[in-house]
User: What shape does this take?
Amino acid sequence: MSDVVPLTGEPLALDLVNTRPRLADGPADLLATPDALAAWLALQSDRLAGSGLQDAHAPAAGTWARLTAGDVAAVHAVREHVAAAIDHVRQGGRPPAAALEGLNAAQRAAPAIRELTWDGTSVTAALRRTGPLGGRLAAWLAEAAADLLADPSAGRVRECEADDCVMLFLPAHPRRRWCSAARCGNRARVARYYQRHKSP
Assistant: This one.
């Protein structure tokens, strides 16, 4: 993974799109390799509980160690569909039909079911997805995108106002301007301070 720490804490679909930041030397892909994808999934570990992604008999680290280039490609495809759909929706437009169909297809490829088991004393139900790991990841991410796109708040998604930032966020406060106060907000404040105090 790049030395750039991915922006997390937004709705999962936005966190996914935000894995394509713009750096000083151009665009970057924070999910370019299986190891980078595994590192991002580790950052999302709190959201993975109950997702049906992890193998029942393997810890998360063991599951992510098996990621392949094909799994990365499946996640990239979903990311492109999410980015296209969100870009149109946040501007009040209709999302491209291909983006919606791509997200629907990803969900259909590995639907989540509530699998029933007997634990010796009672029946338990746990969410489970079947199929290749990349398909399960793509389905989970496409489902998160569906949740966001179907929510009226999707129209409030904004792009960071920093000149060199392309990160998206869903503002909890209408005056929020930056993806992160610690990243872009601080840089903007420092730049304004410098402009006010520089010698004429």
About this structure: Residues 12-197 form a domain with the Jann2411-like fold fold (CATH 1.10.3300.10). The helical segments are 12-17, 34-43, 45-48, 60-65, 69-90, 97-109, 133-149, 181-197.
